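Justification of resources, computational component.

The compute hours requested in this renewal are based largely on the per-chain cost of generating structure records like the one below. Each record pairs the submitted sequence with a full structure-token output. That output is archived, and it is also reused by downstream analysis tasks.
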Amino acid sequence: MFKPVAVPTPARRLFLQQTGATALSATAIALLSGCESMAQTKTQSANQDINILNVALGLEHEGIAAYQLGAESGLLQKPVLETAVLFQSHHKAHRDLLVVTIEKLGGRPVQPRPMAEYAKGLKADTLKTQADVLILAARLELGATNAYLGVIPALKDAELSKVAARLAADETMHWTALNGVLARALPQNALTFGA
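The structure output for this chain reads:
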């Protein structure tokens, strides 16, 4: 049976490391939130922002692929499958927002890898039950939540922090719903996310 691993994937570790040391500039977050007037001045940290956003985009590609693998596995019952497809659509919206922002910053968005690479990296061959698929999805959603929360502390503008928080909120909602389907107990401690 597939066992969840608390250690983030290499891409998530890289994202957390990068955002721990530096965060997205106000320009990048302004573009993410659709506030182009706030982003008119391109900062010197644009390349760094593009790199961080591309790592985030890579995580969204991974999430989209994971839900695709789950949907195609034949292991998900109808209501769970419908929810997985809904969550995948959220990740696609995140992807689209990141692509537009990276391009507006003058960068080149990272492309998704072949599905076979995602399947291998996510160990799709070990998924034997609906619970296995949900455990994998919950682990990825928790990693995404923590990654997005990692950029918030360095933001000085409350409106810009709100954008990153909204992305984290989507991931947290996904994690919570998946854990509910798995009948997992709620976290016993406060401040579960972002640690």
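Helices lie at 10-21, 26-32, 46-72, 78-104, 115-121, 130-149, 158-181. The chain has one domain: 10-37+44-181.
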